[in-house]
Amino acid sequence: MISKNIEKALQQQIAVEGYSSAVYLSMASWMDAEGFEGSAAFFYKQSDEERMHMLKILHFINDNDGHAIVPAIEAPPKSFKDFHSCFKSVLDQEQKVTASIHELVNTALKERDHAAHNFLQWYVSEQMEEEKQVKSILNKLKIIGKDGSGLYLLDRELGEMAANAAGGEDATA
Fold this sequence. Notes:
By secondary structure, the protein is mainly alpha-helical. It has a single domain, classed as Ferritin (Up-down Bundle). The chain is elongated.
């Protein structure tokens, strides 16, 4: 049975993951409108991933005799300054999610909730991967600068990453 403190903290994380999903969906739409089809596919995939993260928490709460509530999600930004600033905001967003996950782990340890602690370890590892991936993209952007052909190639690479992660299926479907 889940403690009320853990349930409340996980409920807050559902909102964090939901907002991340909305942010990435907004970024996908912006990238689509700007002609960055590969990056749009990448962000559609990221949005789906964040939604899956949200659903995992929702199921964990319900599976442990709690009652997960779907929260209202704050509206994400509608547009972005440019390609570079979009990815800089991704790193900021992922670092906020990481901090939130770490706080959840601390709460689970304080509550001595071993099931929640075990469950959250997947999120700790996932966040390490997410931050590493976006830092790699930012490093490439640092090398590319504002070069159009470099952005084109990176956009194509991001589209391929999304397609590979979706098992070769269209990541926007």
